[in-house]
Amino acid sequence: MASPTIEHFVVLMLENRSFDHIFGFRKGVNGLKGTESNLLDPSKPPSPTNPEVKVSNAEPYSISAGEGPSHSFNAVTTQIFGTKAPTSTSVGENDGFVKSYRESLNEDHVANPTTDQIRVVMEAFAPGTLPALEALADAFCLCDQWFCDVPGPTMPNRMFIHMGSSGGYVHNVWTHKFTDKTIYELLQQNRKTWATYDFDQNEVRQFPALKSHTASFKRFEDDFAKDVKSGKLPNYSFIIPRFFAKTGPVNSMHGPYDVRPADQLVADTYNALRANRDVWERAVLIVTMDENGGFYDHVVPRRLTGKSLDTFSSPPPGDTASWVPKFKFDRLGLRVPTLIVSPWVSPCRVESTEYRHTSVLATVMKMFELRGQLTNRVATAATFDGLFSETTPRTDTPKTIKSVKHVATPRTFISGITVNQAQYGLDSMQHEIVQGVDALTRPKGAEPLSLASHPETQGTASDFINARNRP
């Protein structure tokens, strides 16, 4: 078989959804039977005060109560192990999702959450709900054994797809400057080009070694389709969704926000690539989620042993937070939905090889023949170059795909005041991101931005971030 000509890898990493949550009721995958359930307290038998909450395909586009399920390291540990304390030999049962979500709602000041509010964490999207993602699954390859690298939140998992580790962190540290070698430095050393395409937040800016490469930090809305059309798309592109509503709604899939704008971002990315045949026939698009976001998945992630393990552990040097757990990075996180999209991939394929985020790095390094090393996690990750099984680029791939039209509705308060999304306040993670951008870009000698001085709305936070990142 002739080797496929791949010159462009494009990675779109969305936020916080498990495999079962997105594709659990799709036919032909390792999904849901419809009988899976969690108890409110998994250590006790079912009763009227300890109801059994079953999976269903009734997941709403957005979540009405709280900020969405917690996906901290401790929360994910509860989701996997329930009330049991994990040991070096224990195996989880994924029976603590309901328990964890009830605790999240309590922390979000949702008093006495109802069973209907709690069941959101066990629900999946019905087939036909997210047409762009489903269209790519129909036309290309869906991986149903793709795991995030950390059983924890956003930032550590995003760092794994950039450098093959999180520097020992299992919690979000938007203020930290990472000095580990990244895939971007390997690309540069091997004379390959790269770029990130963002809307506001961009975690790749946490690598000081990449700071001077200003031309590689681009805006999705301004640059991605233009670069594809002009044939100037780099060898490796990483797309970061919109975290703050300003020029459009949040399109990251981060709870509790509406997921339809993220499905539209998937369509926009694919349609731009597909529009230039020259680029498309040499391209691979990888669509994935950084972690499960606290949503139910029935597959228990396995432990890592031997050569997969690295020397980093939590807490890393300098991380003095008293609540940070000890962890040897010897357990994977939960499954996330991942699509491998290319004219070199056969249609409607379901791939059940175990992959993880570091498989992206391993595959790029192999197919581009990059000299150099990252981490053991990358060196031992399965590569997916074998999925490019077509002998010539397919000519039957969709020319365009569609998404569900989403019109952001203004929010009217009891006082009668109506505001649009750009005027919404910030959630806890958005405040952390603003704090991180301030720490990374603050002029020397300037005082840290106090919480009282933070931008108060989505729009002003977006303006603050873009002004700091692109002065």
Polypeptide structure, described:
- The protein is an alpha/beta fold and 471 residues long.
- The chain folds into three domains: 8-20 and 128-244 and 260-387, Alkaline Phosphatase, subunit A (3-Layer(aba) Sandwich); 33-122, no CATH class; 411-469, no CATH class.
- It has 14 helices and 14 strands.
- The protein has helices spanning 19-23, 73-81, 97-107, 115-118, 131-139, 154-163, 183-189, 220-230, 260-275, 277-280, 358-367, 376-379, 428-441, 458-469; strands spanning 8-14, 37-39, 52-54, 141-143, 146-147, 194-198, 217-219, 236-239, 283-289, 338-341, 349-351, 355-356, 411-412, 418-419.
- The chain has an eight-stranded mixed β-sheet with strand order 7-6-8-1-9-10-4-11, sandwiched between helices. Strands 2-3 form a two-stranded antiparallel ribbon.
- β13 and β14 (418-419) form a beta hairpin.
- α2 packs antiparallel against α3, α6 (154-163) packs parallel to α11 (358-367) and α13 (428-441) packs parallel to α14 (458-469).
- The protein starts with 7 loop residues before the first strand and ends with a helix.
- The mean pLDDT is 92.
**Principal-axis shape:** globular
Main β sheet profile: 8 strands, mixed
Q: Name the CATH class of the largest domain.
A: Alpha Beta
- The number of helical elements comes to 14
What's the pLDDT, averaged over the residues? 92
Give the helix proportion (percent range): 25-40%
> In sequence order, what are the helices and strands, one letter per element?
EHEEHHHHEEHHEEHEHHEEEEHHEEHH
Please, what is the oligomeric state?
single chain
Gyration radius, rounded? 21 Å
Q: What CATH architecture label of the largest domain applies?
A: 3-Layer(aba) Sandwich
CATH superfamily of the largest domain: Alkaline Phosphatase, subunit A
How many structural domains does the protein architecture include?
3
Could you list the spans in which at least 5 consecutive residues all have pLDDT below 50?
none
Structural class label: alpha/beta
| Total number of beta strands | 14
Strand content: 5-15%
